[in-house]
Specification:
Blueprint (H helix, E strand, L loop, with lengths): L5 E4 L12 H9 L2 E4 L2 H10 L5 E4 L5 H13 L4 E4 L12 H9 L3 E4 L6 H8 L6 E5 L7 H8 L5 E6 L4 H11 L5 E6 L7 E6 H8 L8 E5 L5
Parallel strand pairs: 1-4, 1-5, 2-3, 2-4, 6-7
Antiparallel strand pairs: 7-10, 8-9, 8-10
Helix pairs in contact: 3-4, 7-8
Length: about 230
């Protein structure tokens, strides 16, 4: 009987290629095939490190159908690595469903440690790190206000991801639901040449980004509510 293969979740740099680990490179070179969120995005990374493997697309639009095929390959004994466009797979990226399906069939799953945007943003914020909650991207429409109202009472540090074209809208909403004087820390372009972290009240940070570049992916840390 064929021994099942193993599913590896391999973090990739969120900007700086020097953050790729030796272990991640070894795994990507040893597996039978690689799953990528966007094969066009991953191609330069794999080429840079001279990783020559078959690469298949695995993203949010084909995750369910793709996972069924991947599980079959794993059961046939193939070792497979999953990477996202940047950071750790399954953290605000595809991966959770595939992991769950693999575990249903007792397939070994191994997640390598590595780059994740919210960790340096949290540490850079200066807010308490002993307890925090990670929210990722807020719902775009349905449930968004309800989530804000719930989180307004949260006493732990709260972490959000946000895209540049929605940053100002999100800061406006935070001023409404958390209050203009709530302390926040906004990091962008983490690990890249123009990395920046802006700290202050919601109102101060909102005013800052009205006259400064709103480029790159953003991580917003919000101080917990104090009594």
């Amino acid at each position: 009987m064929t021994q099942p293969g193993k599913l590896y979740l391999v973090p990739t740099p969120i900007g700086n290629l020097e953050d790729m680990t030796f272990r991640a490179l070894r795994v990507l070179k040893e597996v039978d095939l690689i799953l990528a969120e966007d094969t066009r995005t991953s191609a330069p990374l794999l080429k840079h490190f001279d990783i020559q493997k078959k690469v298949f697309a695995h993203h949010q639009h084909n995750e369910h159908q793709s996972s069924n095929e991947i599980v079959k390959f794993l059961l046939e004994g193939k070792n497979i690595a999953l990477i996202s466009d940047a950071g750790t797979p399954a953290i605000s990226d595809p991966g959770f469903y595939l992991v769950r399906e693999a575990l249903k069939y007792d397939i070994a799953v191994e997640c390598l440690p590595g780059a994740t945007a919210f960790v340096p943003a949290l540490v850079n914020s200066g807010f308490p790190t002993d307890k925090f909650c990670f929210e990722g991207f807020l719902p775009l429409k349905k449930g968004r206000q309800t989530r804000y109202k719930f989180l307004a009472e949260e006493e732990r540090t709260i972490i959000f991801y946000e895209s540049p074209h929605r940053l100002q809208k999100t800061l406006d909403e935070m001023a409404t639901f958390f209050g203009e004087d709530r302390q926040i820390s906004v990091s962008r372009e983490l690990t890249k040449m123009f990395e920046e972290t802006v700290r202050g009240t919601v109102n101060e940070v909102k005013t800052y980004f009205e006259t400064h570049p709103v480029k790159g992916e953003f991580v917003i840390c919000v101080a917990g509510k104090t009594n």
